[in-house]
């Protein structure tokens, strides 16, 4: 697959809630842990993120149309507080590709590559931190493909997670993409 170009825009919790609701409640998104969320639950969750200076939600666009969800957060203040020793320049990340009836080979890998390149466009970002569910083998393979190195399992209230890190240099070595 040729390299897909994506753009990013801030998520609008009200305008985008219906689209997000369809994505996060789909069985494919089980690890997103919003399977039983109502439309109002999704609006509320993303309004909280929009109001949070340490957590941001973005939509990834392909040809101007929403193609995936990306969240970035400051792990010193959200998600991983007390679970590891944050370093200056650490940025936490989540991403979600929506369900589709017509999967495109390599699409999700293109998405995570674009997400990582976007995060590393900020010169202050030195390392990306992720904490996927230990059972999510598909995302572990994607993470490895873009340079993440697992450090250890950690216990979060909602899951056992695989704490993993990727530096700018590891991303470049894994993908050949410079940010």
UniProtKB/TrEMBL annotation:
Acyltransferase required for the direct transfer of medium- to long-chain fatty acyl moieties from a carrier protein (MbtL) on to the epsilon-amino group of lysine residue in the mycobactin core. Residues 9-56 form the Acyltransferase MbtK/IucB-like conserved domain. SMART domains: AlcB. This is Lysine N-acyltransferase MbtK. It comes from Streptomyces pharetrae CZA14. Pathway: Siderophore biosynthesis; mycobactin biosynthesis. The lineage of its organism: Bacteria, Bacillati, Actinomycetota, Actinomycetes, Kitasatosporales. It comes from the Bacteria. Signal peptide: none annotated. Pfam families: Acetyltransf_8. InterPro entries: Acyl_CoA_acyltransferase, Acyltransferase_MbtK/IucB-like.
